[in-house]
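User: Please run a holo structure prediction.
Assistant: Happy to. Please share the sequence and the ligand.
User: Here you go; the ligand is alpha-L-arabinofuranose.
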Amino acid sequence: MKSLRGVALLVTAVLLCLSLTACSREPVDEAGAASGEPATLVVGFSQIGAESAWRTAESNSIRQEAERRGVILKFSDAQQKQENQIKALRSFIAQGVDAIILAPVVETGWEPVLREAKGAAIPVILVDRGVDVSDDSLYVTLIASDFVEEGRMAARWLAGVTDGRANIVELQGTPGSAPAIDRKRGFEEVLAEHPGMVIVKSQSGDFTRAGGKQVMEAFLKAEAGNIDAVYAHNDDMAIGAIQAMQAAGVVPGDDILVVSIDAVRDAFVAMIDGTLNATVECSPLLGPLAFQAVEATLGGEELPKNVVVPDRLFDQSVAAEAIKSRQY
Ligand code: AHR
């Protein structure tokens, strides 16, 4: 199986310009004759890492959908480092992939490499997190949840169960990442309407269970007896915080309320146990939408700049029923 771009490199520039079949992604053999079979797409996927159950579910969704469609997927795990993602993108460009799917770790610093992809006529589809660029033609579309609204949903739920009075500690996601920035913003927007709800401490736990546990241990020492609720930017950090509370003799879900975001399976287990009170869904099952976008843009279709994946909130009252149909 040959990738379109790999094959295209072997034909002359004149043939490339003139051949409509090559433009329509029909494979061309080394002598330049069209084989008549549809080309196998080659897509590079630059993933952030595997910091959370959510992230692993997203990687699985992309891999499964590539396999289902017979797409060759070049998967690169950046181990949380933007520099590794930029290297991966440059490598995809050098290999001449047909398209790139990017889950960017942070919002800024993408412009040069996205220009290189555009210069090579390789479309870039953003999944899950957005980027901050001066020219939005540098990517085709962003397929993601509305992180600001997720923060609002968590805050509205907490306002409802506390009558608008709570000392809150916040576990933030990776600094500079779209979900950490937007989930904080949405939560604080709602808090502005409730003067009795105050964030007494806020720190990053980097979206990891270990980070959530470590930061919560410090919060419990610094604010002993003064914490009513934890707002965690993801479930993994909430679960780490729950472990810290249990080790300190505090009853999570009761002495201290816990609300988080993602709605991974372990969050439902924790809600059934009574240690987590609520979670806002953020779907990682982005593979089908991502590859639809890849195929549509390669087929010449115009796509919306932003595809918003809808979310909802789950609390303990629905957890036992909802866990039966969870896919991640
Ligand atoms: O960008 C989505 C966030 O990244 C998820 O909430 C979190 O679990 C992940 O690491």
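The pocket of alpha-L-arabinofuranose is lined by residues 51-52, 54-55, 128-129, 179, 207, 234, 236, 261-262, 282 (CB under 6 Å).
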